[in-house]
Amino acid sequence: MMPGASVHPLDFLFHPRSVAIVGISGKKxxxxxxxxxxxxxxxxxxxxxxxxxxxxxxxxxxxKCYPSLVDIPGPVDYVISxxxxxxxxxxxxxAAAKGVRCIHFFxxxxxxxxxxxxxxxxxxxLEKARSAGIRLIGPNCMGLYCxxxxxxxxxxxxxxxxxxxFISQSGLNAEDLVNEGNLCGVRFSKVISFGNxxxxxxSDFFEYCTADPETEIxxxxxxxxxxxxRFLRALRxxxxxxxxIILKGGLTSAGSRAARSHTGSLAGSPQVWDALCxxxxxxxxxxxxxxxxxxxTFRFLKKPAGRGLAVIVIGGGASVLxxxxxxxxxxxxxxxxxxxxxxLRQFTPIAGTSVRNPLDTVAMETPDGIVxxxxxxxxxxxxxxxxxxxxxxWGVSRVDDVEPIVQGTMxxxxxxxxxxxxxxxxxxxxxxxxxxMAALEVFYRLAAKAEVAAYPNYxxxxxxxxxxxxxxxxxxxx
Length: 478
Known about the structure:
By secondary structure, this protein is an alpha/beta fold. The protein has 16 helices and 18 strands. Helix 4 crosses helix 9, helix 5 (about 200-210) runs parallel beside helix 6 and helix 12 (about 365-380) packs parallel to helix 14.
């Protein structure tokens, strides 16, 4: 943080000194959420004390258990509740007596049930929290993932932080985004699963991430909104400072019913949502895969100067389909200049190839061919970006170890990206065998290490590039 910079009022949520996990079963073979969180925290890099709270165990995994929060000898900042809903009012009283600052309720059985008793219980919990100055995350959520502090709710989540935040009403979607983003080299500053949002809601977390110096890109999954006016103000402020990409759930009648049963939220109409996104200057996407692709794009792809795209592939059919897709979503594929085509023909065989745009060229199979092709194409007038579609199914099908082949290909591609006069993105032909699937994972890892934007197929790449350019244009016009 810069000297003199103010600390956001919610920053303490992400930097607790100690964590208590309430509701751990003492039975050796019983799985429960409390044990899950304990196992995660023992491997997440959290350096403060972890206090298991259990009424049926004196010790678990070498840690002393306490029958209640008030029996813990040291201060407790952050509590994870995995007890049944019937015990939460007593937990609130204990937390108030202990001076707890925040409770994450994994516990469900509140407003999301649609039952009057659940709504009343949530109201009483919130009333107790506010009188004690305790902030609530949830109920019915996975909580916080903050790699720099060791907070987590996933076993395989990376320990390395990154610049992307994710604000999600769904815990499972949050897990899926972190895991898929991890494969693509996306790392996170903060991931927040907030469920019912009885206390802290989507607007609170958008305001926090806007001010957070560790966050450069904000992504989100939203089902319903507590306060439309405040939410719009929060989105406008966020998008004025950082790219904001949102996936909205509950835009159909079936999705709206699911959203109400999931978090107790009310969903909105597609027309209202589209209008809000335009007003706020945010990018609206249609799937978690789109969210990952946009995070990759903003993280690794340099800004194209316009909509002129060159597509370079090996295989004529793929080049035609990619060209059709590109133009349908508003990208242009201008023919390369006569000079560029003449240069390419000096090392590109005439038979079975094309050097106009899209390019179908076997020159991509050699190190010099890739670098030279990209350099020549990038200098052609009207070309603002390049998409290279590569493949591994041919090269790896007969080898035991796919990594050396992928390393060699990636080294050539990364060099071409670095030396290109325009931004370059990579896409991979979807694998059609087990070896190609294994190669794809290696490809992603190496692309992220080289800070190259890489996508699992050309459609996803083109869609992300088109949204990226449209976002730039909208900001330039505003």
